[in-house]
Every structure is written in C-alpha cells, then in structure tokens.
Amino acid sequence: MKPKLEGTEKAEIRIVAGSLKGRKLTVFVHEGMRPTPQLVREALFSILGNAVPGRLFFDIFAGTGVVGLEAVSRGAAGARLIEANGKQAAEIQKAIDRFGVADRAQVLKADGYRWAERWVPPANSGPVNLFLSPPFPDLDPAKIPAFLEFVHTLLAKAPEESVLTIQAEDGFPVDRLIEPETWDVRKYGRNMLLFKVKETPPSGVSS
What would the pLDDT profile of 80-119 be if each residue is shown by its tens digit? Predict the structure, then answer.
C-alpha cells in the first residue's frame, strides 16, 4: 500500500451529469489547491448551459481535472486540461484513459500563465470556454496583479462570444477586473463564480 502523501487529503469526486454521469475520480487534494465543490460545479454548468456542447473547454489550473472531464461528459467538443504539477497531470491522464475519452480530452503539463502567453486559439474553433480556478496562493494580494493581467491576456486572445469563468472566494477584487460592470457574479457561500462573455465589438471598432 502506498503511503498517503504528506500535506494531502484523499477524496472521491463524482461526475454529476452527461455521458460519464456517476463515474468517480479518487484524488489527493493538497492545501494549495482550490477544488470546485459539487454545488459550485453544478451551478457552473447550469449557467453555461448551451454554451458547453460543441465548444472547446479549457480547464486552466486543472487540479483534479473534474471540471474539464465534466465538460466532456456534457458534450464539449474537446477539453484541454492545463496543470503545472506533474503528479496531478499524471492522475488526470489516468482518469482520461480509464473513462475512455482520450479522443476528446488532453492534459497539458504546463504553467497556466506561460501557457496563456503562448496560446493561440485553434483556427475556426468558434467560441470557447475558459475556466480559471487558480491555486489559493495565486490570489494572495501580492499576486493579484499578475492574475488580473493573465485574465486580460486570455480575454484578448479568445474568439468572440467565448465565455471566461473565474472561481474565487469572498474578497476577490471584482472591481479591478477589466470592465467590472460586465461580469456576472454569482455567490455560493464563500465561493464565487464570475462570468464574462467576450462580446462582438461594434461595427468599425477593432478589439
């Protein structure tokens, strides 16, 4: 029997809807991760609704990988799960293989910020979903400016009508986001989901 990894807690997470409904992931959650509670995950996909099927889904800071796999389960055209931690990335790959969705889900071992700098949306992909659930340390006050710049970079690159969603907690500086009045903010206890649709600019205005 392998020993429990120091600083981690074993958990079982269930996919709640779609073709993989009921399938479970056994994961080790460490203190820096920001797992998405099932209630929040259900709310996320309920709000995204028809914006999931047929679109690419990017689960940045994938962690356990459950959000990206839930997107695949609910009909996403494909999921790209970006995770910097090698062990976490390997566990996500095991789940992808076990669930038989390797043709639709791909895990990329990469730092989310550097990935965003290099990211080029697939040609003719149409709108995509970008989900950001950064580790707790990334939203420390000293690191907030880097995270906000990261969000701006992704929005600038995303195709029109794409949806970017941030999972955070009470205290997140919504007023420092680009065009804060255009974000849809939902609260679930201490958890927050923040949604931004990249709108088509008015005729004659470049983005």
Answer: 999 999 988 999 999 999 999 999 999 999 999 999 999 9
pTM of the predicted model, to two decimals? 0.89
How many other CB atoms are found less than 10 A from the CB of residue 203?
5
**Residue 92 has which token pair?**
């996500």
d(CA 170, CA 192): 7
Tokens (6 digits) for 180: 């804060």
| Spans of all domains in the chain | 33-197
Q: What CATH number does the domain located at 33-197 have?
A: 3.40.50.150
CA–CA separation, 192 and 76 (whole Å): 23
Please provide the DSSP assignment of 80-140 as one string.
Answer: EEEES-HHHHHHHHHHHHHHT-TTTEEEEES-HHHHHHH--PPTT--S-EEEE---GGGGS
Cα separation, 23 vs 15, in Å, equals 6
| Closest to 168 (Cα-Cα) out of 186, 149, 156 | 186
